[in-house]
Amino acid sequence: MHSKKQASLKYYVGIDVGSASVRAALVDEFGTVVAHADQPIQIWEPQPDHYEQSSADIWAACCLVTKKVVCGVDASRIRGVGFDATCSLVVVDKQFQPLAVNYEGQNYRNVIMWMDHRAVSQVERINATQHRVLSYVGGVMSVEMQPPKLLWIKENLQESCWEKAGYFFDLPDFLSWKATGVTARSLCTVVCKWTYTSDGGWDDGFWKMIGLEDLVKDKYEKIGNHVLSPGESVGKGLTPEAAKDLGLPAGIAVAASLIDAHAGGLGVIGADVKGYNLPCENEPITSRVAMICGTSSCHMGVSETPIFVPGVWGPYFSAMVPGLWLNEGGQSATGKLIDHMVRGHVAFPELQSKAAASAHSIYTYLNSHLDLIKKSLPVGFLTVDLHVWPDFHGNRSPLTDLTLKGMVVGLTLSRGLDELALIYLATIQAIALGTRHILETMQAAGHHINTLFLCGGLSKNPLFVQMHADITGKPVVLSKEVESVLVGAAILGACASGDFVSIQEAMAKMGKVGRVVQPNHEHKRFYDKKYEVFLKLVEHQREYRSIMNSF
């Protein structure tokens, strides 16, 4: 790039808070990631199904990575900042100081993570109400949403937390508050995780029915009574204090935030696909699904009219793309499940040493090992007798059953690297079969989907990508920039700056296609049979549970 051209470019900072790390990127107006940095953040697991973090630890990591990516850049070229984060619950008191969300009283641990499942009893009672707001979350609320977590706090930490709480933030909204001093919430967070509706706002009857009438009394000040659309400018931009923390000039535009998966969707789903011979080329954006795959996976599909899909969250109006309804399918453990299966195998130390000796990651090595043992077969056919049901952390979509457990059928006495590689392959296939289950449910309800757009850490694994193409029978588009979630966050900052007239314009200019992976249609019959077995596995699980429940 010529220095003259570089000097005229406009830049935006995207900050992404994932489950285990915070990342930042400096992105130019064409969607190119110019600089990138990441920093791990701490997770506490004080007891099973309790996962906690620290908002102070998260903000410190945000500051560290942002300073790294803007170092040496002309600050006058940086036009806006956008945040995205996991949909975790942050609790602070009336002076915005952290409040403990745990029995130990550790105030710095003031974040209940998205994947925390402590509120099982509370969500069951909420779902038993069959309140009308539940129709906008696929008919059944997830334990990962905020109302059951709030109810858990009230019932278990009434004096130490509930009565002292001044504000309950979704993590993306906490970050925009920290940056601007404004407590406005994003339409994305409150609609997707808190039961706010874009046409009617908060439903007093719902909160009273579930025992959280306290929130109604103060006109929802604690959970948000000022709501902005994603990408809308918040307040007067960066406060002097936040600007100093982040290494940026005060007053730079800060955007209303997004949940991390939605930022990933924003970064990929609107890309210009002309010339790639894709079925979605001359179709509206509603023919696409963005799949954001990391620790967990989310499947984001949009529609022009509301589509109610059983077991799939939404429809949410303007929660990701303004003017369109969003449905969100998901799998609670994908990258986490693959790690669990691989690292828990007896042959993992052997894998680790051989991968290190070859200077490859363990997953690159496993992919190569599968190529060695497949002989004349296609790699995927190696699992003809090995099948996995992937719900080791419950089923989010489309069965919405958090009590479901993982299953592996077809184990032998083998303890070697070959067996580990096969389990790894079968796990990836199970995740892809779960995606097919979600897509078929969405299509049966009225979606018309012909192309997948993948981003997130797992999209870097070619085996994961090819299995999703083969098993769903749909082409997979990978973005030019691997860090699509960060590009999505930067798109928010670009919109807040006023440099683009709409999110749609920014998506088309800043989202770029990198590679297309086509399905191998010759393998269709094999994967159709695998899918039959996949659906039988959950039938059998429910059958044997029914038998045992009668004991």
Helix coverage percent of residues?
25-40%
- Give the percentage of residues in beta strands: 15-25%
In the sheet with the most strands, the strands line up as 15-16-14-13-19-20-21
Total of DSSP H or I helical runs spanning 4+ residues: 19
Please report the distance between the alpha carbons of the first and last residues: 71 Å
- How many beta strands in the DSSP annotation? 21
Keywords: Kinase, Transferase
Family: Belongs to the FGGY kinase family.
GO molecular function: D-ribulokinase activity
Organism: Eudyptes sclateri (Erect-crested penguin)
Give a written overview of the molecule.
The chain is of the alpha/beta class and 551 residues long. The chain has helices spanning 3-8, 55-70, 120-128, 146-156, 158-162, 171-180, 187-193, 204-209, 214-217, 240-246, 260-268, 335-343, 348-357, 362-373, 417-445, 462-472, 484-497, 503-510, 524-549, and strands spanning 11-17, 21-28, 33-40, 52-53, 78-85, 89-93, 111-112, 165-170, 185-186, 227-228, 253-254, 258-259, 288-293, 297-303, 313-317, 325-331, 387-389, 407-409, 451-455, 476-479, 513-517. The strands form five sheets. A seven-stranded mixed sheet has the order 15-16-14-13-19-20-21, sandwiched between helices. Strands 1, 2, 3, 5, 11 and 12 form a six-stranded mixed sheet that branches. The chain is globular, with a radius of gyration of 23 Å. The model is unreliable at 1-5 (pLDDT under 50). Keywords: Kinase, Transferase. GO terms for molecular function: D-ribulokinase activity. This is FGGY carbohydrate kinase domain-containing protein. Pfam families: FGGY_C, FGGY_N.
